[in-house]
Design goal:
The chain is mostly beta strands. It is built from one helix and 50 strands. It is globular, with a radius of gyration of 24 Å.
Length: about 700
């Protein structure tokens, strides 16, 4: 040990994780601890409503009998912060003592009067716009608060603490370096003087971890790694004599939950790396795609449950876990649940990680080249999205969940961007239902060789939705006692990759749609009771709060780049006394995969990331004569490519900002292409 000031730092190695442990004098906030332990009521002080992540409010002034009278109380624009094609506005505002705090996709934070929407103060992050290791859009999914401070994880991998009264920076702690592939996109969690934060970067060959910081000083208390070093617990699930686990992903996209009585903190982990190539990482690859429990004070391993063994489908566990209490077979049980990209809800006992309802290991298709796992855990109950793809023209094979693929594309559902991705899943103790958002999308999976380079994408393959294939969604109530569907609404748009919902004691579920509509749904029956057009993509989870005896429902509306919904910078609040009417609807997001927009005749230059729309080709569709050379130039902030969907025919390679590549199209034909790092980004060259 060595002393640094008054702090003692020790490196402790266990069978499963390595920790950097600091022993400071914790300065807890008893009032905040009381609020986050109890159900959400007048205030909404943590991302998931309270420590359980149930997103359940006890307020019931607005209920099923009067919700149709709801109107806008106020709408505030946030001065253009995060309004652009590379951003998503997905953060849940926090509210305490009549003040709302909201963070945008540019990591800028605003304090608003929660009754009127007036801006009180603003913090501009000044974050480097050249950050090149962002996976899936510039996004910040929320804040934490405690001890008079707001806590925000940033895309530059810093954790920042702001004074709640002024927005002044009190401390800033680097969790990692963005240049090494790490970013922070999830909302942190505060409890008992500690800030808990995950870290992103699973597509960049990183090593996932949960970091605990002292809320008062920003000092790192411990790090608990989600990938084992050689010789540690779980290392036997990686090839011996290799260091593949040290860059194997298992990042934490989500806000943890915490049970103070058990003293445990819970979270889920993302995909293995490289995403689609399992050939060099034989074994189950712990602790990728897993639900995990650690001791909240020390970060020591307690239990895990792996949802997907040896993941090669990008089936991250990304949606926050939810803690709930229930009765099964006449016995009170402490449950934990998580909605996966597989389309299933995984329901466990949170004391020991054992299934509450039943999850069976069943044989799955095999491919020795991919070193596939022989079995996968299959929950008893219903899936919320389809799990088999239909064969489409131009493809040789369509498969079901856990089917295999190599270098010839195979169609599968759910896609790795299907099921439930980052969107949270609320739980109502009144109905006993989970409310699960889902994306229905087919992907063509393919594997190719990839080389690890620090700070560059490392995926070993790709998945993209076939041209003209449909994309839609589901919103499903799952009975927490049976894991079966209580009711389900089909949605025209994908809602599993952004947004989310919240539920109230008034019998209502509130959720947004990518087309700008904000909805109220009967929590018991699924019947739509109210909708309101906000004018921007409504892709953030709403919150419920009360000021001066008046109940409000608020939502950030600014779009989601992955959904392609209309971007903006607005926060809406609604109440029964509201006077504001709806806005004109924005352009709706795509429901069919492929490039959109007019065909530019004779265009021989395509700009990538132009017009403040990072994930785009401009023009996206061109018509040229045979023999024409088209120059692709990256004018965006992130690395992009133009890669033929018929892989191997032509490829610009990955271009950084300012780089260009010329491609000559000698033969007539219809050439569709994607950005390989961002395979939801489409273009088309028509050669005559």
């Amino acid at each position: 040990m060595r002393r640094l000031g008054q702090q003692v730092i020790a490196v402790v190695t266990t069978l499963s994780f390595s920790f950097l442990m600091v022993q400071p004098a914790l300065a807890a906030d008893p009032d905040m601890d009381r609020l986050v332990r109890g159900p959400a009521g007048k205030d909404w002080v943590t991302n998931g409503g309270n420590l359980t992540n149930q997103r359940y409010s006890t307020l019931k002034q607005i209920d099923t009998t009067n919700v149709a009278q709801l109107k806008g109380a106020w709408m505030t624009r946030l001065k253009g912060s995060g309004a652009g094609g590379k951003y998503s506005f997905e953060g849940s505002p926090l509210v305490k003592d009549g003040i709302m705090y909201v963070v945008t996709g540019n990591d800028d934070v605003f304090a608003l009067n929660a009754k009127t929407g007036a801006i009180i103060w603003e913090y501009w992050s000044g974050i480097d716009q050249k950050i090149s290791t962002v996976c899936c859009g510039w996004v910040n999914r929320g804040l934490a608060m405690g001890e008079g401070l707001l806590f925000s994880g940033q895309l530059d991998a810093n954790m920042v603490a702001l004074d709640m009264k002024t927005g002044e920076v009190k401390w800033k702690t680097p969790l990692e370096k963005w240049e090494n592939g790490y970013t922070v996109t999830s909302a942190p969690l505060y409890y008992d003087g500690i800030i808990y934060s995950g870290i992103s970067g699973g597509e960049f060959g990183v090593r996932g971890r949960l970091t605990a910081l002292d809320a008062k000083s920003g000092a790192i208390l411990w790090r608990s790694y989600t990938l084992p070093a050689p010789g540690e617990r779980g290392s036997e699930t990686w090839p011996p004599g290799t260091d593949h686990s040290m860059r194997g992903g298992a990042t934490i996209w989500n806000t943890p939950a915490l049970d103070p009585d058990l003293g445990l903190v819970y979270f889920v982990t993302g995909n293995c790396g490289p995403d689609y190539d399992g050939s060099m990482r034989e074994g189950d690859n712990l602790y990728c795609a897993s639900m995990m429990a650690l001791k909240a004070k020390t970060g020591e391993y307690v239990w895990h449950f792996q949802q997907v063994h040896h993941d090669i489908w990008d089936y991250d566990a990304a949606s926050p876990v939810v803690l709930f209490d229930t009765v099964i077979d006449g016995k009170p049980r402490k449950g934990i649940a998580e909605a996966g990209r597989t389309g299933w809800v995984y329901i466990l006992d949170r004391t020991d990680g054992k299934p509450l309802i039943g999850i069976d290991e069943k044989p799955v298709p095999q491919d020795p080249r991919q070193k596939t796992a022989k079995t996968q855990p299959i929950p008893r109950g219903d899936a919320t999205v389809p799990q088999c793809a239909e064969l489409l023209t131009g493809y040789e094979k369509a498969g079901c969940i856990f089917d295999t693929f190599w270098e010839t594309p195979v169609l599968m559902q759910p896609s790795g961007i299907g099921g439930t991705n980052w969107s949270p899943m609320p739980y109502s103790p009144d109905t006993g239902y989970f409310y699960v958002p889902g994306t229905v999308r087919t992907s063509a999976f393919t594997r190719f060789s990839d080389k690890y380079v620090l700070g560059l994408r490392y995926t070993g393959g790709s998945q993209s939705a076939p041209i003209n294939s449909p994309m839609s969604g589901t919103f499903t109530a799952i009975d927490g006692k049976t894991n079966k569907i209580a009711w389900q609404n089909k949605t025209p748009y994908r809602i599993g990759g952004g947004g989310g919902s919240s539920v109230t004691a008034g019998g209502l579920v509130f959720r947004g749609d990518p087309d700008g509509n904000f909805l109220a749904i009967d929590a018991k029956s699924g019947k739509e009771l109210w909708r309101f057009q906000t004018g921007f993509g409504a892709d953030a989870p709403p919150v419920i709060y009360e000021v001066d005896g008046e109940q409000f429902v608020a939502i950030a509306t600014g779009g989601n780049q992955l959904q392609g919904s209309a971007y903006g910078d607005a926060v809406w609040a609604f109440s029964l006394k509201g006077q504001l009417g709806p806005l004109w609807p924005p352009p709706p997001p795509q429901t069919v995969a492929g490039p959109t927009g007019p065909i530019a005749a004779g265009a021989d230059a395509v700009r990538i990331g132009a017009n403040n729309v990072e994930y785009s080709f401009a023009p996206a569709r061109v018509r040229i004569k045979a023999g024409t050379t088209v120059t692709f130039t990256n004018v965006g902030d992130l690395p992009h490519s133009a890669t033929s969907m018929d892989r191997g025919k032509w490829d610009t390679g990955v271009l950084v900002k300012g780089q260009s590549k010329a491609v000559t199209f000698a033969q007539p034909g219809n050439y569709y292409y994607i950005c390989l790092p961002h395979p939801w980004q489409y273009g088309q060259v028509i050669v005559e």
